[in-house]
Specification:
This protein is α+β, with helices and mostly antiparallel strands and 294 residues long. The protein folds into three domains: 3-180, Sandwich (Jelly Rolls); 182-232, Arc Repressor Mutant, subunit A (Orthogonal Bundle), CATH 1.10.10; 236-293, Arc Repressor Mutant, subunit A. The chain is built from twelve helices and ten strands. The model has no long low-confidence stretch (mean pLDDT 92).
């Protein structure tokens, strides 16, 4: 039995139920799905996912991607998209290994690499996929192997493996996506800063012209670059942040639609319910019940 088969069997044994699991290694998660799913709207944080088994379909803007076993996908910014599990069964689940991208580690590596490559400036997206080479697959596998080892061993080895994975991602075929979002002085990094500000202040009324000015961008350039990168406008982005956070609050069972709407910055529960239904297809209460049942 080869190493990949051993790792798949290990994951199936460790995680007998389907789900999205934190591991004992910070920044490393494992996804296991036992069946196909419908498209679901979601936000992706900066991450790199390696698929070990099954296939996944993702829609970002007007582009559709299908990822299969042996491929990886990189998302270099927080973006809204739609995703579904295309191929998975209980006997052969869809298994994904997820590494959260660490902006500090990326900046450190870019400095150490002393890169002068300006090709990333030609980058036109913050989400894409490619075939994974043996080196990258082996690094991910070593993280899985380490995830149930003693804490002392993890404390020493996990940072080394995560740094190696970040290096391989930066020097791989999708490295420009990550470089662009983390290198100062280009439009992608400016939009990444705008996204962070919107995330930190999503409850507040934000003057988008002032936000553009703080980034040294003309309003027209800011709106264009933002939509080029995220596929939606800054106002739509903030609205979606609010709606996803409200959904998360309601799923905890501690908040109803009205209380959640006020917490995320809405002044009118009626407007919140209308925009929620437009976004997710069902009124808040019905949607949350459906998600809990699923």
């Amino acid at each position: 039995m080869d190493k990949i088969e051993q790792i798949k069997n290990k994951i199936i044994k460790l995680y007998q139920e389907p789900g999205f699991f934190d591991t004992s290694i910070k920044g490393f998660k494992i996804s296991k799905r036992d069946g196909t799913t419908e498209f679901k709207k979601c936000f992706y944080a900066p991450l790199a996912i390696l698929l070990l088994q099954g296939s996944k379909q993702t829609v970002f803007g007007d582009r559709e991607f299908t990822f299969k076993a042996g491929q990886y996908m990189v998302c270099s910014m927080d973006i809204p998209l739609m995703s579904r599990i295309k191929n998975a069964t209980k006997e052969n689940p869809c298994i994904g290994l997820v590494v959260e991208l660490d902006s500090y580690l990326i900046s450190q590596l870019l400095t150490e690499m002393n890169t002068t490559d300006a090709e990333y400036r030609k980058n036109s997206t913050c989400f894409a996929g490619a075939d994974a080479d043996d080196e990258l697959i082996n690094a991910y596998i070593r993280l899985v192997e380490l995830s149930d080892k003693p804490e002392g061993k993890q404390k020493i080895l996990a940072p080394m493996i995560l740094k190696e994975i970040h290096y391989l991602l930066l020097t791989g075929s999708l490295g420009n996506l990550i470089k662009a979002a983390n290198t100062k002085g280009n439009q992608y990094n400016q939009i990444a800063k705008a996204i962070n500000l919107l995330k930190e202040n999503y409850k507040e009324k934000i003057n988008m012209e002032e936000l553009a000015k703080s980034l040294n961008l003309a309003s027209s350039s800011f709106y264009k670059h933002f939509k080029d990168v995220t596929t939606i406008s800054p106002l739509q982005y903030q609205k979606q942040l609010r709606l996803y956070e409200a959904q998360r609050l309601m799923l905890t069972g501690e908040y109803n639609a009205e209380s959640a709407s006020y917490l995320v910055g809405y002044e009118s529960p009626t407007q919140f319910s209308r925009e929620y239904k437009k976004m997710f297809g069902n009124p808040p209460k019905m949607d949350v019940q459906k998600l809990i049942t699923a």
